[in-house]
Write a structure and sequence with these properties.
By secondary structure, the chain is α/β, with parallel strands linked by helices. It has 3 domains: 341 residues, Glycosidases (TIM Barrel, Alpha-Beta Barrel), CATH 3.20.20.80; 60 residues, Alpha-Beta Complex (Oligo-1,6-glucosidase, domain 2); 78 residues, Golgi alpha-mannosidase II (Immunoglobulin-like, Sandwich), CATH 2.60.40. The protein contains 16 helices and 22 strands. Helix 11 packs parallel to helix 15 and helix 12 runs antiparallel to helix 13. The longest helix has 17 residues. It is globular, with a radius of gyration of 24 Å. The two termini are 20 Å apart. Bound molecules: beta-D-glucopyranose.
């Protein structure tokens, strides 16, 4: 197995807007991150992944970039960014940034030129984006080139009268897709990447990386996802960046792709693949979808949670990359609901279930990414009004739900359960107003339980969810037996618990967690049980595991044995 520094590190994802507001404008910023570096260091974090910090109209909170070479005013300046790099590096931490390559904002100068035939640079920049002439339907009406639907639930084409063309936007109309077949565009993107490398960033999380290539035959399918996702040629673009920039500069790179077979997984994250070091994939993220929902589709259709699906996804990825590549483990990021609300329990078992989820995840092999607030057990939003939400996707989808006959309150509940804003509320640092995130009303409301769930309250409590995370993350950073072990799920089809053995070179863990609010009887037909002793638990537990055990609701009982 290849060994690299990034296999032994813990990554912490910072959603900049909601992390810490240092200048009292209600929006998180770069100085806010600097102010919390010691907190992160103490949590055994080695790498910070910062969500997009570039200049942007913020239609998609920075994933709509209007200038890749500038920092958004509300986040700070380029000097502030350099300060963050210096201060992180001084503490032995690295910083990776989000690299948004699939699209720009429609306010980016490239697009401004592209859409306007009178612009002096129109000819050059028009081809940086993807344009098609309108089609004519049977009735003679001019319509969009295809019926494709973008990821935020609205049509993927927008008409531009000045050129009498439609441009493609697979996310949102204010985020036109770049044309990766255009070599000049690719060269410009490389200049941008070099700029940030020269400034000292340690790597990138490459946003929406499997969408770079499109089917230029533009078949008229609905919703058409297969024509703008995971087309083979996108690997060529990624390899080009990898070979010219990522690998020679020894960067840590993490791609993002929903779904991949073994061949693709190895292209993305296989050792020496020259694309990425690791891949964020979503196989475990929606293990509770109701495929037969009368109104809702995909992630919006909440059904019964199946831990077996989570185990199956992780097992599949461990198998696909076995000895040949490296896995990321994470519960969720800024695009999914809070794991505690999603897969855990926010009622009487709140703390226990936060700990069980953490033990289940962070004792598995791979590199861990923790999303801000997970370490204190943050939960989903409790918003009463639609105007408390901020995400652009919320509004397109809310309209879709209503048009399919759902009433307002039912639609609100869908948003409270599934929307991306769940993960984007401000980090509660204290029990003071606005959770100590800011001194003024923040850009998005703090969740109501901040007086109980905040960093300050948990910091000095050895029994807190935060302390539990600290223990786990410190263990990971110190023990290669965990990060480099090999995993076997004990009862993969079981839908109540999440149990496995992680076998390292010198020691082995037996991790028993209960993902339900019931007592779960386990029959462990496992060799060498008597050699394990209790290592960690969030409830009363036996000193040594036995063939028949009863796991209390949301129990985490971790046993360990030496192998030498
Ligand atoms: C990011 C989202 C973003 C989208 C468009 C995703 O992969 O994680 O937050 O809206 O890309 O950039």
């Amino acid at each position: 197995m290849e060994k690299h520094w990034w296999q032994r590190t813990n990554i912490y994802q910072i959603y900049l807007r909601s992390f810490f507001d240092s200048n009292h404008d209600g929006i998180g910023d770069l100085h806010g991150v600097v102010a919390k570096l010691d907190y992160l260091k103490d949590l055994a974090i080695g790498v910070l992944w910062i969500s997009p910090h570039y200049a942007s109209p913020m239609d998609d909170n920075g994933y709509d970039v209007s200038d890749f070479l500038r920092v958004a005013d509300e986040y700070g300046t380029i000097e502030d960014f350099s300060l963050l790099l210096r201060e992180a590096h001084r503490r032995g931490m690295r910083v990776i940034t989000d690299l948004v390559l699939n699209h720009t904002s429609d306010e980016h100068p490239w697009f401004q030129a592209a859409k306007d035939p009178a612009h002096p640079e129109h000819r050059k920049y028009h081809d940086y984006y993807i344009w098609q002439k309108p089609k004519t339907d049977d009735t003679g009406q001019r319509i969009a080139p295809t019926r494709w639907i973008g990821w935020f639930g609205s049509p993927a084409w927008e008409y531009n009268a000045a050129t009498d063309e439609y441009y493609l936007h697979i996310f949102y109309k204010k985020m036109p897709d770049l044309n990766w077949r255009n070599e000049a565009m690719r060269e410009d993107i490389k200049k941008i990447i070099r700029f940030w490398i020269d400034l000292g960033v340690d790597g990138f999380r490459v946003d929406a990386s499997n969408h770079l290539e499109k089917n230029w035959a533009f078949p008229d399918d609905y919703p058409g996802y297969q024509h703008f996702s995971s087309l083979p040629k996108h690997h060529e673009y990624l390899r080009e960046l990898g070979t010219e920039l990522f690998v020679p500069n020894d960067l840590l790179t993490i791609g993002e792709s929903g779904g991949a077979n073994k061949e693709e997984a190895l292209l993305y994250a296989g050792y020496g693949s020259n694309e990425f070091n690791m891949l964020i994939q979503f196989g475990h993220c929606w293990a509770d979808i109701d495929d037969h929902h009368p109104i809702l589709r995909g992630k919006w259709a909440k059904g019964t949670f199946h831990p077996s699906r989570v185990k199956a996804s992780f097992a599949n990825w461990y198998e696909m990359l076995d000895q040949k590549g490296w896995n990321v483990i994470y519960w969720h990021n800024h695009d999914q609901p809070r794991v505690l609300s999603h897969y855990g329990n926010t009622g009487v078992h709140r703390e226990r279930s936060a700990k069980a989820l953490a033990a289940a995840l962070y004792l598995m092999p791979g590199t861990a990414i923790l999303y801000q607030g997970e370490e204190i057990g943050m939960s989903n939003v409790d918003y009463e009004r639609l105007d408390q939400f901020r995400d652009v996707e919320v509004f397109t989808e809310y309209a879709n739900f209503r048009s399919r006959g759902m009433d307002h309150e039912a639609a609100m509940q869908v948003l409270r359960d599934r929307s991306r804003d769940n993960a984007r509320t401000p980090m509660p640092w204290t029990d003071q107003a606005y959770g100590g995130f800011s001194t003024v009303s923040p850009w998005i409301d703090v969740i109501g339980n901040y007086p109980d769930v905040n960093v300050k309250k948990q910091e000095n409590d050895p029994e807190s969810v935060l302390s539990w995370h600290k223990t786990l993350l410190r263990l990971r950073a110190a023990d290669e037996n965990i990060t480099h072990g090999s995993i076997r799920f004990l009862d993969p089809k079981n839908d109540l618990d999440f149990c496995y053995r992680n076998t390292g070179k010198d020691s082995e863990l037996l991790v028993l967690t209960n993902f339900s609010d019931q007592f779960v009887k386990k029959s462990l037909q496992e060799p060498n049980l008597a050699k394990f002793t209790l290592f960690l638990s969030n409830c009363d537990a036996l000193r040594t595991p036995t063939e028949t055990m009863v796991l209390p609701p949301y129990a985490a009982q971790v046993y360990r044995r030496a192998l030498k």
